[in-house]
Amino acid sequence: MSLQTEWPFTLPKGYVDDQGTLHRTGTMRLACARDEIEPLRDPRVKENESYATVIVLARVVTELGTVPRVTTKTIESLFVSDFSYLQDLYRIINFQDTSVLDSLEPGAPFPTSSVEVG
Fold first, then answer.
1. Beta 22-29 vs 6-16: how paired, if at all?
2. What is the pLDDT along the chain (118 residues), one digit of tens a residue?
3. CA distances in angstroms from 90 to 5, 17, 39, 67, 78, listed in the order given
4. How many other CB atoms sit within 10 Å of the CB of residue 94?
5. What's the pTM value of the predicted model, to 2 decimals?
6. How far apart are CA 62 and CA 7, in angstroms?
7. What are the helix (H) ranges across the chain?
8. Which three-class secondary structure state does DSSP give residue 105?
């Protein structure tokens, strides 16, 4: 038995880069403790605690279309529905049963009950 550490995803709308290219598919990896600790040292988080989510997602989204490197600027530029989708995916793969992902169509919103942390 092996541990799955990466999950492919398809964003509901997609990220549009500076050249106008749409990127919808990507990969997210499991987070490690450092992914949640390091953002707390960032001055942007000291100004606004919510920014930690942007930093964490920039660390764990390892691929997004042909974007060479996913950065906080990339995450900041996502449409709200895509940002929410990645937050839900993060919660599912790090804190919940990932079997819910097998039944979803690419880009489909996650069922509300699947993202509640119990």
1. antiparallel
2. 788 899 999 999 999 999 999 999 999 999 999 999 999 999 999 999 999 999 999 999 999 999 999 999 999 999 999 999 999 999 999 988 777 777 666 767 776 554 444 3
3. 12, 22, 16, 20, 15
4. 17
5. 0.84
6. 10
7. 33-37, 43-47, 51-60, 72-76, 80-95
8. coil
61: three-class secondary structure by DSSP: strand
Residue with tokens 């990507």: 26
Angle at 25 between CA 31 and CA 28, to 5 degrees: 5
Write out the two tokens for 87. 């937050």
Residue 25, C-beta contacts closer than 8 angstroms, at least 6 positions apart: 8, 9, 10, 11, 63, 64, 65, 106
Between CA 36 and CA 109 the distance in angstroms is 24
Residues of the chain by 3-state class (helix, strand, coil), percent to 5: 45, 20, 35
